[in-house]
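sorry to bug you again but im stuck and you know this stuff better than me. what follows is a protein written twice so to speak, once as letters and once as structure tokens for the fold. mainly i need to know what kind of three dimensional shape the backbone takes. anything you notice is useful, everything is just below:
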Amino acid sequence: MLDINKIRNNKNEIEQALLKRLKSDDFNLDEIISLDDARRELIKKCDDLKSQRNQVSKSKPTPEVIAAMKKVGQEIKELDDQLAKVNLELQEKLSALPNLPASDVVAGGKENNQVLKVFGKKPNFSVGKFLIKDHVELATSLGLIDYERAVKMSGSGFWAYTGVGAVLEWALLNYFIDFHRQNKYEFLLLPFLLTEQSAFTSGHLPKFRDDLFWTQDKLCLDATSEMMLLNYHREEIFQEKDLPKKYFSFSTCFRREAGSYRTEERGMVRGHQFNKIEMFAFAKPDESTKIFDELVTNAEKLMAGLDLHFQTVKLAAEDASSAMAKTVDIEVWLPSMNLFKEVSSVSQAMDYQARRGNIRYKNLAGKTEFVHTLNGSGLATSRLLPAILEQNQQADGSVKVPKVLQKYLGLKVIK
């Protein structure tokens, strides 16, 4: 959520930033400022009447005074009711605004994304003179994934890991967990079901309600571990000496993914359920950029360890999540699709989420300020496993296991 005082004092600057990701008729800052004016005026009137009532209460309670104060009490109640309505409307308008893109984030959509780095080279299958298979064919022929039974159980958009496939999935997760523990991030295992307040704090509500799975108890399944980790410290105040706070967590993530799948997004490229390790940090504003760079580096190191061809991309404003000021994606190469697919998004929310969740810290001078929140996949597996199969396939249909995973898997080649 944006700071109303910042909107009042820097209206033109805020408008220009929002126009990087919104059209001019998608928001109205004048309307928001007018609502805040009305809120302030109602508070002043209410406080004046309460002050008047307090002064009169010190005098002798004559029938005339009692009658007058009864009238004042009724006026206060009416003003409080008006104030509640204005506050609700103001909060709804503020909640609908996305975060401000960082100054170095360009306007526009995917077409304006910027490739920052490219790692490794595309695998050259012409040397072995064989036609490459996609991950669906490889996973099926090697007995790693059962698509048919998963669809029978749960419908389209699901898959089941079987045999060595299940071990390979778990090997990836163990590789990530060991890496983050070595980097002194604290491991948390948190509930997958979250309240509406938790979804609001993360920025999924009100805009993305239909992208979430909801239970009859009005709880949603986490769409990303970021939702869980962010809300772990909701409504809390850190001491400055305890920041930054760095966590990582495992979760299975659930997304409705409304809309039709593109024909190339078969198999595990896009689905309703996938596993992910998430990095998360609560930081002082002056440490935010440094930690953002650290999260990007961590994701790149994990990918480099798997010896896969990938690239690092800074997203344009419209392509990034609305709650984030800046996002860098790590994208892995999928030979069968002849394109890169995201396996990690590293994002800097500034104080946007902290305001929604009232997460603050007390600095050394005793002043309370909002923290900055940052998150990054470290990593998601559902596109990594396909990339490992496709980039490491051999002419005989077998797949080489990345060296960092061999100790977990007990295999150098999957046959």
